[in-house]
Amino acid sequence: MATEKKYKSFWSFYPYYLTEHGDAKNRALHFIGTAGLLVILVAGIILQKWWMLALIPVCGYGFAWFGHFFIEKNKPATFTYPLYSLGSDFVMFWHMITGQIGKKLEEAKRTIAES
């Protein structure tokens, strides 16, 4: 039985992370969740409504996990690599904003296929 690869660095993990987000609908849900948590963070600070900060994981993980369970039908990487996954959410968000996501996803598929 094959064992799951263990990632020892963020940048070796990120290609795997991207391949777990191959469906554009799942990536869109991640984008909404990440944008939402940033809005909640800024609003909570500006309004000094500290209780709003408790909504950050609900928003971020809620959208993401919905996408994994019902669209990709895979296990969220958060369960195995919580910090790498969190960082990858923000890198993927940046790649989506800057229009690099298609290129990065193709590079990730090649990287994973070669490993």
List the keywords.
115 residues; mainly alpha; elongated
Question: What's the arrangement of secondary structure elements?
Answer:
Layout: H1 10-19, H2 24-47, H3 55-72, H4 82-97, H5 101-114
Structure report:
It is a single chain. The protein has one domain. The chain contains five helices and no strands. The chain has helices spanning 10-19, 24-47, 55-72, 82-97, 101-114. The two termini are 17 Å apart. The mean pLDDT is 95.
- Report the span from N to C terminus: 17 Å
Low-confidence region ranges: none
User: What is the average of the pLDDT values?
Assistant: 95
Rg, rounded, reads: 15 Å
Strand content: under 5%
The total count of helices amounts to: 5
Structural class: mainly alpha
The shape is elongated
Give a short synopsis of this structure.
This protein is mainly α. It is 71% helix and 0% strand.
